[in-house]
Amino acid sequence: MNEAGLKRDLLAWYARAKRDLPWRKDPTPYRVWVSEIMLQQTTVAAVTPKYEAFLRRFPTLASLASSREDEVLKHWAGLGYYSRARNLRRAALSVAADHGGEFPSGFDAVLALPGIGRYTAGAILSIAFRKPYPLVDGNVIRVFSRLFGLKGRAKDPAFVKTMWPLAERLMPEKDPGDWNQALMELGATVCSPESPSCGACPVSRHCVAFKKGLQDKLPVPEAGRKPVPVKWTCLWIEKGGKVLLWRRTDKERLLKNLWGLPDAGKVEAAPGRLLAKASHSITHHALSVQLRAASLTVGLAPVRVARGFTGFLPPLHRNLSIL
Ligand code: SF4
C-alpha cells in the first residue's frame, strides 16, 4: 500500500467533492460538538434542519448551559435518542463550571464530558482544534476493511479495536480534521455499505478489496438482528378541552422520562373507540401503536395513577401524527 499516495488522493478528492454541510462552516468547538452528537445514530438529512434550528435557539455554549432541560429536549424533538440531548446540556454545564465556559482542548478533559466517547473526542479535537487525534466509526471501519483487505465484522469489538492503531498510523500532522472527515465522507457517499461506487472512487487504485473483487464481502456482513415486536395502546383522555399527558418513568423500555399520551394500564381508564393506528421502529423495536379514546373511571382529585402522572395539560398535539 502506497500510504502517501492514498492520503494525497483522498485529501484532494475531499477538497473538491465534500458536501456543503452547515457544521463545516465556521467549525468552532461548540458547533462541531453539537453536530457530532446529533449525527450519532441519525442521518445527515435528518440532522441538517434540526442543527440549524437548534443553533438558532442555543447559539453559544453559555446559552445551552443556562437553558432548562425540557427546553433542550423540545428542540431535540425529531432526532430521537434523547439521552444525547440531556448529556449535551450536562456537558455544557460542566464546561461552564469547570472550564470557565471555554470548551476544553485536552483529550482527557474532552473525554470526561458527558456523552463524549473516543470517537467524538477525536472528531472535536481534529476538526475544531486541528489536533492529530484519529477517529473510528462505522464508515471508517468499512473503508479501512476494504482498502486494506481486512476481514472482520464491523460490530465485532475485537475487530474495531484493531482499527484504532491503523487510524493513528495514517493520521497526517497537517489537516487532521480534513483527513478524518475525508475518510467518513468517502464511507458515507462512495464506499457505501451496499453497492459501493468503486468506479467513481478516488482511491480505488489503492484498494485491496477492489483489486480482488471483495467489496461485497468486506467487512464481513453482520447476521441480521430480529426486530422485537412491541404493542402499545395509548389513550386520548380529554377534560375541559385539555388532554391528559403522562411523563414516562425511567423504568420504561422506550422513551424514558418523555411526555406523551398515557399507555393503557397506567391510568384508571378503559380503552374505547379506536382513533388511529401507526407503526414505527425505535432501534430494533417494531412498535405497533393504537390510539383509543378513553375516560377516566375515577375522579381526578385524588386519582390513583401510575408514578409520573402530573395532571391535565393543554393539548400540545391535536395532530395525531405525533404517533
Ligand atoms: S474502491 Fe470501492 S471498495 Fe475500495 S474504497 Fe473505493 S468504493 Fe470502497
User: CATH topology of the largest domain, which one?
Assistant: Endonuclease III, domain 1
- The fraction of residues in strands falls at 15-25%
The first-level CATH class of the largest domain is given as Mainly Alpha
Overall structural domain count: 3
Report the mean per-residue pLDDT as an integer.
Answer: 87
Distinct ligand kinds: iron/sulfur cluster
CATH superfamily of the largest domain: Hypothetical protein, domain 2
Work out the helix count.
12
SSE order, one letter for each helix or strand: HHHHHHHHHHHHEEEEEEE
State Rg.
24 Å
Spans of at least 5 consecutive residues with low confidence: 300-307, 316-323
What separation lies between the terminal Cα atoms?
A: 51 Å
**What is the structural class?**
alpha+beta
Examine the secondary-structure arrangement and name the CATH architecture of the largest domain.
Orthogonal Bundle
The strand count comes to 7
Percentage of helical residues? 25-40%
